[in-house]
Amino acid sequence: MVVTLILASLATDASSQGTTLEARLDSLVARAPLAKASVGILVVRASDGSTVYSRGADRLMIPASNQKILTALASLDRFGPSHRFSTRIWASSKPDADGIVDELIVEGGGDPAMNSEDWWRLAADLRREGLRGIRGDLRVDDTRFETPGWHPSWGSISARAYHAPIGALTANYGSFFVSIWPRSTVGEPALVDIDPPVDYLRIYNRATTASRKARPRLSVDRAQGQKSEGPADEVVRVDGVVRVGDGVDRFPRSVLDPGLYAGSLLAYQLDANGIFLDGEVRRAPRAEELLTLILDRPGRSVAEAVSLCMKYSNNSIAEALVKNLGAWEGASLDGEPSRQGEWVGGIRALRGQLARLGVDLDRARLVDGSGLSIQNRLTPRMLVDALAIGLRSFRMGAEFVAALPIAELDGTLEKRLRGGKGRIRAKTGLLSDASITTLSGYADRADGETLIFSILVNGHSGGSGAAVDAVDRVAQSLLDTPIGSPRPKSTSKSTPVAAANAD
User: Fold this and answer.
1) Are 445 and 479 in contact (CB under 8 A)?
2) Residues near 233 by beta carbon (within 8 Å), at least 6 away in sequence
3) How far is CA 404 from CA 378, 390, 439, in A?
4) In whole angstroms, what is the distance from residue 76 CA to residue 303 CA?
5) Largest Cα–Cα distance of the chain, in whole Å?
6) From CA 118, how far away is CA 130, in angstroms rounded?
7) Other C-beta atoms lying within 10 Å of the C-beta of residue 489
8) 31 φ, ψ (degrees, to nearest 5)
9) How far is CA 27 from CA 350, 437, 468, in A?
10) So what's the pLDDT on residue 386?
11) Which residues pair with 378 in a beta bridge?
């Protein structure tokens, strides 16, 4: 029996070694769940740009989060890997002899990656500047971007973390965690905890502890608090049942107002650093007031922000980068932004930046920076061109390539592409409700060649899991399957074929 299995394995290996990459990919695309889908694939050699495989390479398709490849490339090129967006703290005067100010204003500069630890560090820096208390309010100024919110093309917005609104002042990507545990006695309310535990988020808990025989079910949502004379807040509503003896359930959720949430987190971290706040957190831009700058704190570098965006497919970072592109269009990075950041201007600036790099997006439809919108349209060739430019750029290529998830090692590829560990770096994309999965990046072959590829699948059959596995098999085939005779580098575009679900 063992000998039979070994012989069968050897026969399979011999058969696969005799199959060219073109035949292998054609075979994979012809199978379910890709057989009835709209599929676009382009694979080229990094060394000379010659085409290895092309199928619908100029087909306009929904890219999902592969859209972030364009956002990352444009942002790194426009701002440079080391640029940092600042958060500024203002007051009517410097702290008095007791370290007190009348009011404090926190002005968001579009930093997309401020987390709880960064806000603690900012509060600690204020203490080091001599601040010990605020007699009045902590004011929030997030006017660098248009009113915090959601892109109109995103459709119905949920409380999920990836649907967080975009603002110029934010914390933890506009999201928080809700943890829920059972009590030891049936009928008791479940234990609920929010991280970070800021005053702005108020718990309304209707979840109860049930017996082991019960079916566990939980829902976590958030809603605007009651409009009153008191401080603004959001209510986190927890419903359902948890069973005695079960472990903790954790739910990532998004806020409704990223600016007030960030201000509340700053108030929390000020208290942690021994700085009191007598007033409330409220939105009140600094406008034309004569104020004293207390602290100008640069955030994480653009390279770090892009890495977080790409590795973990962070929508909030991507959209903030697009709005920053719009705000700074035509302005010197040594000065102030030229306009308020918003989506239309941001996409215009992104197109211009990529055009200067040589990415032809004339036929593309770009709506947002993250790929959440199903109105976006790109071709595999556009993504391969962007990846090729990123790979060879001395100015920011190293940071661009390093930002991509690595097969079996990190990010959204940590548990994908088994057998290709460390040999594929690629951006994933998934819109389950629209039956879309995408993967674009680099494959490091055993023969020493690097392949640049883009695989876009729209309208696959079956569930997302099977489609992702099918796309992974296509990408894995790039690693070791014999390429066959090289094709010349393409200098003209084929006639585009509209995707089945395209406009």
Assistant:
1) yes
2) 199, 200, 201, 202, 225
3) 19, 11, 11
4) 7
5) 87
6) 19
7) 11
8) -95, 155
9) 37, 19, 16
10) 98
11) 61
Q: Is residue 390 part of a domain?
A: yes
**Helix (H), strand (E) at residue 129:** none
Supply the pLDDT for residue 207. 96
Residue 376's domain comprises: 19-81+302-480
The string of pLDDT tens digits covering residues 318-365 is: 999 999 999 999 999 999 999 999 999 999 999 999 999 999 999 999
For 395, the token pair is: 């100015």
114 assigned to some structural domain: no
- For 291, other C-beta atoms within 10 Å of its C-beta total 17
Q: How far apart are CA 175 and CA 196, in angstroms?
A: 10
Nearest-CA neighbor of 162 among 455, 412, 438? 412
What is the token pair recorded at 260?
């007030």
SS (H, E, C) 41-69: EEEEECCCCCEEEEECCCCCECCHHHHHH
Neighbours of 237 (CB within 10 A): 18
Instruction: Say which DSSP state 312 is in.
Output: T
Q: How many CB atoms lie within 10 A of CB 358?
A: 10
Please state, as a whole number, how many other Cβ atoms lie within 10 Å of the Cβ of residue 161: 20
Of 134, 124, 137, nearest in space to 272 by CA: 124
Give me the pLDDT at residue 344, please. Answer: 97
pTM strictly above 0.85: yes
Q: Measured between alpha carbons, how far is 117 from 395 in angstroms, rounded to an integer? A: 30
Q: How wide is the angle at C-alpha 407 spanned by C-alphas 464 and 427, nearest 5°?
A: 60
Which 3 state secondary structure label does DSSP give 90? strand
Let me know if residue 127 belongs to a domain. no
Helices 380-392, 343-357: crossing angle, 10 deg rounding? 70
> From CA 331, how far away is CA 301, in angstroms rounded?
19
Is there a contact between 419 and 476 (Cβ–Cβ < 8 Å)? yes
Q: 292-301 and 217-224 as β-strands: parallel, antiparallel, unpaired?
A: unpaired
CB 36 within 8 A of CB 459: yes
d(CA 111, CA 470): 37
Name, in order, each residue with C-beta under 8 angstroms of 28's C-beta and a sequence gap of 6 or more.
Answer: 34, 470, 473, 474, 477
Helix (H, G, I), strand (E, B) or coil at 324: helix
Specify if 306 maps to a domain: yes
Number of domains in the chain: 1
pLDDT of residue 4 exceeding 80, the answer is: no
437: closest CA among 413, 457, 465, 466? 457
- Exposed/middle/buried for 487, CB within 10 Å: 0-12, 13-18, 19+? middle
CATH number at residue 316: 3.40.710.10
Look at the chain and count its residues. Answer: 503
Q: How far apart are CA 173 and CA 160, in angstroms?
A: 12
* pLDDT on residue 287: 83
